[in-house]
Design brief:
The chain is 80% helix and 0% strand. It is mainly α.
Length: 179
């Protein structure tokens, strides 16, 4: 009919076309999420590689990182296993993901012409990006909690949340300076 032709011409989906468009939109969202997840995983692996190969990065990450900083459970597990060690245990050195992570750092080292300072700086930036991501989520959650406490008249909880918000903001500022 002429109405269907007009809708198609104006790129308006007819009911028969709707599932196809929904599927296409969902596929695009999934692809975007995979891209974000892949980028995040690469960042986490680079940090793991830094922990395994660079003493400066190792000491910073192991002192400051929390399990929630890592979305990849395997990376989080390896970082956690390194927390209370002074040397990298052989079973971690030979782990497949650890080898991949070390290779990433070796590639970075080649890209930066072997400059230890530049490599350390890039690895620290990667860690700062991971921490900033988590700190932003925590700030958003704290802000929501503050709104709830304020609307509920919970002054003591609001005071504690404001203090936490200030601490998180200060930490965020510190990591932003590392970028």
């Amino acid at each position: 009919t002429s109405t269907e032709a007009l809708e198609i011409a104006m790129n308006k989906a007819t009911p028969a076309q709707q599932p196809v468009n929904d599927t296409a939109a969902n596929t695009e969202k999934i692809d975007q999420q995979k891209s974000v997840d892949t980028g995040r995983r690469d960042l986490e692996m680079q940090v793991l590689g830094g922990v395994l190969t660079n003493k400066t990065v190792r000491s910073q990450v192991l002192a400051e990182a929390e399990p929630e900083d890592f979305t990849d459970p395997e990376v989080a597990q390896l970082i956690g296993a390194l927390k209370n060690t002074t040397e990298v245990p052989p079973e971690i050195k030979t782990h497949k993901l650890a080898k991949e992570s070390q290779f990433m750092v070796e590639s970075l080292t080649e890209e930066l012409a072997g400059s230890e300072y530049a490599v350390t700086r890039e690895l620290q930036k990667s860690f700062a990006l991971l921490r900033l991501s988590r700190l932003r989520r925590q700030l958003e959650q704290t802000e929501q909690s503050m709104k709830s406490a304020e609307s509920g008249g919970q002054q003591e909880q609001l005071r504690e949340l404001r203090l936490r918000f200030g601490q998180l903001t200060q930490a965020r500022s510190s990591y932003e300076k590392q970028l």
